[in-house]
Amino acid sequence: MKTLRRMLCLVDGEHYFPVTKSALDMLDSLEHNEVVAAVFIGGTEKLRDASEDGISKQLERPVHFGPDHHNIPYELIDELIVRYNVDVVMDLSDEPVVDYSKRFKIANIVLSQGIPYEGPDFNFEPVTEHEVLKKPSLKILGTGKRIGKTAVSAYAARLIHKNEYNPCIVAMGRGGPEVPEIVHGDKIEITPEYLMEQSDKGVHAASDHWEDALMSRILTIGCRRCGGGMVGEVFITNMKRGAELANDVDSNFVIMEGSGAAIPPIKTDKQVVLVGANQPIVNIENYFGPYRIKLADLVVITMCEEPMASTEKVETIKNFIQEINPEATVIATVFRPKPLGDVKGKNVLFATTAPDSIKSVLIEHLEDFYGCKVVGTTPYLSNRPLLQKDIEKYIDEADVMLTELKAAAVDVATKDALKAGLEVIYCDNIPIDIEDGNNKNFDKAIIEVVDNAIKSFEN
Q1: Are residues 97 and 14 in the same domain?
Q2: Is pLDDT above 60 for 1?
Q3: Which EC number(s) are documented for this chain (predicted)?
C-alpha cells in the first residue's frame, strides 16, 4: 500500500491556467498524491489576473506568490515545505521561467529539507540514511575525489583518540572488500611486507581503511561501493553492514568516511564536509555542491595554495560557504607530507597522488623538515604504467621509496622498491590550518564537533 504524499507544485504563467489545472487534477487523482498547495514561480506576461486570489480561484487550490513575480521565490519554497509538511515537490514549470541552473538551486533547497524534487523527466532524491549506529558518530564527506577525505579522517581519528574518545573508522571505497573487513590498526604492525602479503592474497591493501589503520593506529572497518550519483547516493554498498559491525567492536565513537563525492548512507550525529579549493568554482557553488555544504557542521577547505587555488578563490569559497551555511565552522587548510619512518640523510623517491604542479612545495617541505634528499618524484600512484616508468627512471638513485598508501602504492610502488632492495616508508598527509600553523583552531573545531555529536547522541 502506497503512503499518501503531500505535494507542493511549482507553476508558472507561461502555461495557460486551464492546462495547469488539468495537470494538478491529474496529480491529485492519483490515490497516493495530495496536492496541498502551489507556488507561482514566474511568467506574468500572459496573465489577465495576476493576483494571488485570482490564480488560486482558477487553479482551485492555494497558490502562493513571492515578493517579486518575475523571480523564483526560493525562500518561499523553503518556507512552504515546512508550513505544509510537504513530502515531495513537483515542478510543473518550464523554460523560460526556469533553466538548468535555477532548477539545481531549487533542487538544493528541496533536498536539504530531506524530500524529493521531481519533474516530468527527473527525480532527485536525498541520500539514504540508515539509522543503525548505536554510538555517537560523525560523517566525513566531500565535494569530489582526491581532496583529502582519508587524510582528514585519519588526522581527526588520531586527535580524538589522543583525547581518549576511542574512535573507529568505517570507510567505503571502490576497491573495498566483498564482506566488511576489520583491520586492527591498534594491535598489528602494518609493515610494507605485511601489506605485500595481503596484496598477494588478493586484498586491495591500499584501500582507505588500510590507510586509516596505518596512519591512525586504530581499528578500522573497510567496505565497498559501486557508483556515485549526482547527489551522493551509491548504487550498491555494504556500508550498512559495516556500520552494524561498528556497534559491536571496542570503540566509543564512529567516523563514517565517504568515498569520492559519494556520501556514506548512514545517519550520523554530526557531519564534516571537505571542499577542494582546487575544484572548479562552478562545482562548489552550483549543481549539488551547495547540498553537500549545507549538511556540514564543520567545513574543511583543502588545497588552499597556489597553483591549485589563488588567495582570492579561497576567499570566494569561504564567503560562499558562510553565506549558505552560516552555522558551520570553516577551516582553510593545505596538506604537507609526513614520513612514518626516519628519512634523515637518505635519498628519497617520493610517490604521491598530489598534482605535479605542487611537487616543488612538497619536496622543499620534506627536505627542510625531515633532512632527506628527494632525488625523484612521481604523481602517478593512480596510473600504474606511468608509475612504473617513473620508478624505473629514479630507482638507481634512491635509498628509500617514500609513498602515500594510495592506489598502486602496494602492488607496484612497494613491490618494485622491495624487489630493488630499497627501504619502503609510508607517508601521511597532514592538514594544516593556513591561518594558524599550529592547528590550534583546527583541533578545537574537530573536538567541538565530536563533543556536539556526543551531546546529540545522548539527547
Answers
A1: yes
A2: no
A3: 6.5.1.9
